[in-house]
Amino acid sequence: MRATSLWGVLATFALIFEYGCNTQKTMYRWGGYDEALYDHYKNPQKRDEFVVRLSGIISEAEKSGGAVPPGCYAEYGWALYEEGRTTEAVAYFEKESKQWPESRPLMEKLIRNASRAKAPAPAPPAVPASAPEEAKK
Amino acid sequence: MKRLLLLAALAAACQKTLPAKDYSKLVSSNPRAILVVPVVNKSVDVDAANYFLSTLSVPLAERGYYVFPVNLVKRMLEDDGLSDAALVHGANPVRLCTLFGADAVLYVTIQQWTARYIVLSTQVTVEFDYLLKDGRTGEELWKEHQIRVFDSSSANSGGSGGLLGSLIGSLAAAIAAKAAPNYMPLARDANTAALAFPGPGIPAGPYRREYRKDLPPSAPPAPAASPPARPAVQQTPSAAAHPPDVVE
């Protein structure tokens, strides 16, 4: 009898702890996204490292079968876009959009920008994609 | 070690009594997608803003919200001439959210990010203000203030007893390292506590199981489950009249 009630108390505590304080396990497999950002801001000259880490975060999360955390596809896509790898960038913007519907309006804009940037000859000193066409005339 | 910190933070968060915050606007606004803009830095440490920005996505997304990629957002704003975070914080939140398709925008300000060296000890302090505004109305939805003080002398003697008094050995040493004190554990701890709910934080977002089930009892009934509606351009005439050029 006493044992039963003890178990009951324990179970209740476990439940309260589990329910009230259950943020111990993360929802997403972040793979050190925050550390990657931090290191990138600390050592901006090591940009390549940052890009490689973003790619690693994505493949790790994909491998695990869980959702790639919010923003990671887009962050990686943006890094590719900055390098002028627009086709690949668009693929990642599309992935973000598909995985996270909330991002769709922004991703669509980025995809439009990327397609516009790649339309002219791939001149390395590209005009900032955000500059409206009219501004150049 | 990190787990220890987290556990301590959780224990502290769970012990606290519910502060009397008005959640009615946040509940009825029901944001899904949160834009985190660059951090305004009122400390003298010039690196603090970016370092702190890197800590915000994870705890916010773990609360169940879609969080826009902070580095991408920062770069886009910079491309648009908004590299000064104070300018971004001063801009119209409705226009800002329309630009990115966000439901709400989180502004964070660093009040303190300092290390003081006193004879044999190091005192590290971080202090932040968090402010969430509605992307459709620009109204304030939630705000919170957090401060963390870490004193190496009381931590080593196990004295302070508080949350950070329980830190042991190497982590304490890392935070208080004279050459480069590590603010990050304190910053992460402050974020976790700020967002904890029940606690001073925000109710679970749509990607958490307890979404809409953890609301404060006084909250009005949830609006009929609406589709993940974006703040439509038509709703914000000012933004529509002046299409943002940052992403167009």
Overall description:
The complex is a heterodimer of chains A (137) and B (248). Chain A has a domain of 86 residues: Serine Threonine Protein Phosphatase 5, Tetratricopeptide repeat (Alpha Horseshoe). Chain A is built from six helices and no strands. In chain A, helix 2 runs antiparallel to helix 3. With 248 residues, chain B is an alpha/beta fold. Helices cover 34% and strands 20% of the residues of chain B. Chain B has eleven helices and six strands. In chain B, strands 1, 2, 3, 4, 5 and 6 form a six-stranded mixed sheet that branches. Chain B is globular. Chains A and B meet through helix 2, helix 4 and helix 6 of A and helix 1, helix 3, helix 4, strand 3 and helix 5 of B.
Q: Any idea what the radius of gyration of chain B is?
A: 19 Å
The count of DSSP E runs of length 2 or more, i.e. the number of strands of chain A, is 0
Q: Summarize the amount of helix of chain B as a percent range.
A: 25-40%
Quaternary structure classification:
heterodimer
What amount of the residues of chain B lies in strands?
Answer: 15-25%
Q: Name the average pLDDT of chain A.
A: 81
User: Which stretches of chain A are low in confidence, meaning pLDDT under 50 for 5 or more residues running?
Assistant: 10-24, 125-129, 131-137
The number of helical segments of chain B is: 11
Q: Under CATH, the topology of the domain at 33-118 in chain A is which?
A: Serine Threonine Protein Phosphatase 5, Tetratricopeptide repeat
Corresponding CATH architecture of chain B: 3-Layer(aba) Sandwich
N/C terminus separation of chain B: 46 Å
According to CATH, what is the topology of chain B? Answer: Rossmann fold
SSE order of chain B, one letter for each helix or strand: HHEEHHEHHHEEEHHHH
**How far apart, in Å, are the first and last alpha carbons of chain A?**
88 Å
Structural class of chain B: alpha/beta
* Average of per-residue pLDDT values of chain B: 81
